[in-house]
Amino acid sequence: MRNTLKKPVSENCLISTLCFSWVVLLLVTTLQADEPATAKSEPQDGKDRYSYSLQDHDPNGIGKFYLGREIARVMGYQGAPWLERRTREQEERLSLLPKALKLKPGMAVADIGAGSGVISVILAEHVSPDGKVYAVDVQQEMLDLLDKKMKKQGVDNIHPVLGSQKSPGLKPESIDLAIMVDVYHEFEFPYEMMREISKALKPKGRVVLVEYRKEDPAVPIKLVHKMSEAQAKKEVARPELNLKWKETIGILPRQHILVFEKTEEK
Predict the structure, then answer these.
(1) Radius of gyration over alpha carbons of the chain, in Å?
(2) pLDDT for 91-136, tens place per residue?
(3) What angle do CA 146, 147, 150 make, to 5 degrees?
(4) Rounded to whole angstroms, how far apart are CA atoms 177 and 127?
(5) CB-based contact 181:119 (threshold 8 Å)
(6) What tens digit of pLDDT does each residue of 183-216 get?
(7) Backbone angles phi, psi at 212, to 5 degrees
(8) How far are the Cα atoms of 25, 43, 66, 91, 182 from residue 192, in angstroms, in the given order?
(9) Phi and psi for 238 in degrees, rounded to 5?
(10) HEC profile for the chain?
(11) Please, are residues 113 and 181 in contact by the beta-carbon 8 Å criterion?
(12) Are 68 and 193 in contact (CB under 8 A)?
């Protein structure tokens, strides 16, 4: 005859408790598996990457600091006339850039922070007929001014691109050269922008910073809008960005031309 006696009450309680514990553990594990993984090595939202001070800072800066440098205020689209001033070429000689950078027909070039398109026009002529210039800006008003100018001048190889504060909005490995003329020091998120720009470069592609020389007090530009060569290297040539300093070209009267080359990803 089969034993039909019930187990002691204490034993039944123990078994029920164990079963409940296993069910709870299974549910927690399942929920955790559905949550996105977070890389501990990457600071979230720049909390550990940037510092802030609204008291001890330059009035022309935003009170946000990156590797010891305060980030400058962005020039709004209202400043477009200053970018297009008649004396700019005499003061800065930016027409020398294409030759210095060895631009060739057929190249894909990104003018990051293109503004009203002054630099884009210079670049477009030297990558024609088959090359393209992607004029990237975060202000739609600037891109509207640029588009109007291009139609008026009959330039058809400049393509406006609306970027964001953290990305230029370019396709991966699509660019031979990305250039920023008096722009990098205004990036609100310089690390994130350079990371995305690096991704957009083709293998051995180049990043070029044209920045007013902080080392030269005679350059008539507000201090927070200047950058030293050492600071630029410190920020851009970070190993994880896969960008290595290649050369600094000193042919311009007021600005450095700092060239970095994309390296193989580690």
Answers:
(1) 27
(2) 999 999 999 999 999 999 999 999 989 999 999 999 999 999 999 9
(3) 85
(4) 11
(5) yes
(6) 999 999 999 999 999 999 999 999 999 999 999 9
(7) -60, 135
(8) 38, 11, 12, 32, 18
(9) -75, 135
(10) CCCCCCCCHHHHHHHHHHHHHHHHHHHHHHHHHHCCCCCCCCCHHHCCCCEECCCCCCCCEEEEEECCEEEECCCCHHHHHHHCCCCHHHHHCHHHHHHHCCCCCCCEEEEECCCCCHHHHHHHHHHCCCCEEEEEECCHHHHHHHHHHHHHHCCCCEEEEECCCCCCCCCCCCEEEEEEECCHHHCCCHHHHHHHHHHHEEEEEEEEEEEEECCCCCCCCCHHHEECHHHHHHHHCCHHHCEEEEEEECCCCCEEEEEEEECCCC
(11) yes
(12) no
- Which neighbouring-strand residues pair with 161? 136
- The pLDDT of residue 266: 64
Rounded Cα distance, 49 and 44, in Å: 9
Beta bridge partners of 213: 227
Q: Are 158 and 120 in contact (CB under 8 A)?
A: yes
Amino acid at 188: E
C-alpha dihedral sign at 169, 161, 187, 200: positive
For the stretch 36-73, pLDDT in tens is 333 333 444 556 899 999 888 999 999 999 999 999 99
% of residues, the chain, pLDDT over 70: 82
CA distance 229 to 253: 15
As a whole number of angstroms, the distance between CA 210 and CA 245 comes to 14
Separation CA 226–CA 214 (nearest Å):
5
Which two structure tokens, joined as six digits, stand for 131? Answer: 């090359």
Token readout for 150 is 């291009």
| Residue that has been written with the tokens 């977070």 in this structure | 38
